[in-house]
Amino acid sequence: MGNPSNAGESTKPVLSVRKANGTTRGVALVLHGGRSHSYERVEARHLSPARMVPFARHLYRAGGKHGLAVWTLRNSVRGWNGPDMSPLQDARWALARIHEQHPDVPVYLVGHSMGGLTAICAADDPQVDAVVALAPWLSPTTPAERVAGRKVLIVHGSTDRWTSPAESLKYARRAAPLAEELRYVSLAGAGHFMFRRVRLWHTLTTGFVLKAYGERTGVDVGGGLVRLEALLPATAAGTPVVL
Predict the structure, then answer these.
(1) Hey, where are the domains in the chain?
(2) DSSP 69-100
(3) Burial level of 172, CB count in 10 A (0-12/13-18/19+)?
(4) d(Cα 11, Cα 58) in Å, to the nearest integer?
(5) Would you give the DSSP letter of residue 152?
(6) Using an 8 Å Cβ cutoff, are 216 and 129 in contact?
(7) Helices (H) and strands (E) in the chain — how many of each?
(8) 153 sits in which H/E element
(9) What is the pLDDT of residues 28-39, one digit of tens each?
């Protein structure tokens, strides 16, 4: 994990697990953001991992009773680090742990910023069913083929100055022909750190994961999906919905 020559032996990823009630029928893996380059160890007090704790709690409150476990990954180091792609190494490690404990159950990746990029790049894992990328750090080189056959939701605030809503939309249009489903939502007036319109960020994330989970497993996830369907009317793949 990370870069041993720079990060030291003590720098390892950390998983926090919220177990499903009863039999685990699916796992959501929550991924946080970071920096373009840093081998500094990630601490729980850092804002990037702390920002995703409410998303994990929201997912668990809605899905835990329906058999959805929620795993939260704290990366080994703070940076993407060019060709090392440190967070992707950590996500692959976490997915391997899911494979060991819950083989054959569907996995749902939820990531913010650099974690959104990580989620998209890790979507080719055979157990991944769907991806939610929140204000993801995407570029023309982000591989579209990783989401082939997957359900994907990309949500980006219109006033984001840290990552590019335009690049996210371009990616959505590139990947739409390959994905099973691809939805792009632009949140008017929202920025990168999801402070504004926070309830909508949560509703879209949890609703999309639970919808995909219910469709894949046949589990009745309750009436919470009515709100999602009202927010995301049927559109052509890759066509932005502005909320």
Answers:
(1) 4-242
(2) EEEEEEPSBSB--GGG-HHHHHHHHHHHHHHH
(3) buried
(4) 28
(5) E
(6) yes
(7) 7, 8
(8) strand 151-157
(9) 999 999 999 999
* Torsions phi, psi for 184 (to 5 deg): -125, 125
Low-confidence ranges of the chain (pLDDT < 50): 2-9
Domain 4-242 CATH class label:
alpha beta
pLDDT, tens digit (0-9, with 9 covering 90-100), for 50-104: 999 999 999 999 999 999 999 999 999 999 999 999 999 999 999 999 999 999 9
Please check whether residue 145 is in contact with residue 171, taking contact to mean a CB–CB distance below 8 angstroms: no
Mapped onto helix, strand or coil, the DSSP state of residue 52 is helix
Q: Which uninterrupted H or E stretch holds 132?
A: strand 128-134
The confidence score (pLDDT) of residue 226 equals 64
DSSP characters for 178-200? TSSEEEEEEETT--TT--TTHHH
So what's the pLDDT on residue 25? 98
Q: At what angle do helices 47-63 and 114-121 cross, to 10 degrees?
A: 60
Pairing of strands 181-187, 68-74: unpaired
**Distances in whole angstroms, Cα of residue 230 to Cα of each of 133, 190, 225, 233, 243:** 20, 20, 9, 6, 11
